[in-house]
Amino acid sequence: MGNRNAVLAAVAATTAALAIAAAGLAAAAVFGGWYDVAATQQHWKPTYAVLETAMRHAVKLRARDIAEPPLADEAMVLRGAGCYRDKCELCHGGPGVAPGDPGQSMQPLPGPLVDARRHWRARELYWITRNGIRMSGMPGWEFRLRDQELWEVVAFLQRLPELAAPQYAELLGRAPPSPACGPEAQRPAVPPVTVAAPAPPDVERGRRALNQHACNACHIIPGVTGSNVYVGPPLEGIASRQFIAGTLLNSQDNMVRWILQTQQVKPGTAMPQLGVQEHDARDMAGYLATLR
Ligand code: HEC
Ligand code: HEC
Questions:
Q1: What pLDDT score was predicted for residue 150?
Q2: CA end-to-end span of the chain, whole Å?
Q3: Which of 50, 71, 92 to mutate to test the pocket of ligand 1 (most atoms within 8 A of CB)?
Q4: Does 255 sit in the ligand 1 pocket, CB within 6 Å?
Q5: pLDDT, tens digit, for every residue of 141-157?
Q6: What sign has the CA pseudo-torsion 71, 62, 136, 205?
Q7: Contact call for residues 182 and 149 (beta carbons, < 8 A)
Q8: Which of 121, 156, 181, 245 has its CA at a distance of 20 to 30 angstroms from the CA of residue 258?
């Protein structure tokens, strides 16, 4: 009996010592600056394998229930091709077209998407394009492209594996000119929807939109993770302030105006206009209105 207790005590002591040593190593890696964050260094092969595997399974799980629209329509493929040229070629390149500087020197490297159809179902490509891949540099396009445009890019990715360089060039020759997608793009007229009161802002979506439009690159915003930056004023308590940037009376409509037309409202201010769509601005204003 006494013997067994002694063994248990030794095991417990060893476990505790190992845990303390592991915590010490982790602290040294974080605070001692051991981990080399240079993008010119490759990931260690096992690190890369773990990240890659986790990413593949995460995407498959989350895309499981997405319904796919028909994707074979030629007009859809063409619009998707134009959008790919405008938004994706910079990093992923295309048949016969090298990626731009960022795409050639990021870590991990954005691959050419000519084989994406073999690894991913259409709904998974849609999920990746819409949401991006955190910690890899793949941006999420939910707040930059219309839902229809996301599917058009996916339709184009279905065609991409069949294109050699001349066919790719030929397809782009028939694709709409830049900007082929996003808020500035001309879209075929959509039949007007019956006029209804604007939907109330989606506060949670607004919180994500603030991050997706880089507002937290300059502002500390409660609820939005970011560094402690003071390029713009912290937005804590913004809902209780009388004026926006000292010029506009603080209301939800004026907040939307500030976000969409910053430079008209206050010419020369250091805050840039970030190409936000109006409904995103409404959701952001909805979230900012909760910061009392
Ligand atoms: C700023 C650079 C950048 C831009 C722009 C970009 N991507 Fe990516 N993309 C990446 C990076 C980095 C990865 C991750 C590569 C990895 O994890 O191995 C990636 C991964 C992907 C993947 C997964 C590839 C695979 O098989 O693992 C898809 C699909 C994808 N991107 C589609 C797109 C589409 C569509 C667009 C345009 C709407 C786009 N990307 C724009 C950088 C970019
Ligand atoms: C490049 C930095 C930068 C970015 C990015 C930025 N802002 Fe600003 N913002 C500023 C600066 C600087 C001011 C102060 C402007 C002034 O008073 O002229 C400001 C002011 C504001 C104010 C008024 C604050 C107050 O105390 O009156 C709000 C609200 C605001 N920004 C929201 C946003 C939102 C929402 C976004 C994202 C769409 C954003 N900002 C992106 C720099 C930035």
A1: 98
A2: 63
A3: 92
A4: no
A5: 999 999 999 999 999 99
A6: positive
A7: yes
A8: 181
- Say if CB 229 and CB 220 are below 8 A apart: yes
For residue 175 the two structure tokens come to 């694709």
Over residues 49-54, the mean pLDDT reads 94
How far is residue 142's CA from residue 111's CA, in Å, rounded to a whole number?
21
User: Closest ligand 2 atom to the C-alpha of 243?
Assistant: 27
Residue with tokens 């930056």: 229
Query: Among the atoms of ligand 2, which is closest to the Cα of residue 266?
Result: 18
> Which of the ligands is closest to the CA of residue 256?
2
pLDDT at 42: 86
Ligand 1 in reach of 127 Cβ (< 6 A): no
Q: Is the model more confident about 257 or about 193?
A: 257
State the Cα–Cα distance between residues 155 and 244, nearest whole angstrom. 43
Q: What is the pLDDT of residue 2?
A: 67
Integer Cα distance of 98 and 91 in angstroms: 9
Q: How far apart are CA 114 and CA 100, in angstroms?
A: 17
Structure tokens at 84: 């790919």
Q: Work out the average pLDDT over 132-143.
A: 93
Query: Residue 135: its pLDDT value, please?
Result: 84
Separation CA 219–CA 262 (nearest Å): 15
Query: What is the CA(200)–ligand 1 centre distance, in A?
Result: 33
Percentage of the residues of the chain whose pLDDT score is greater than 90:
84
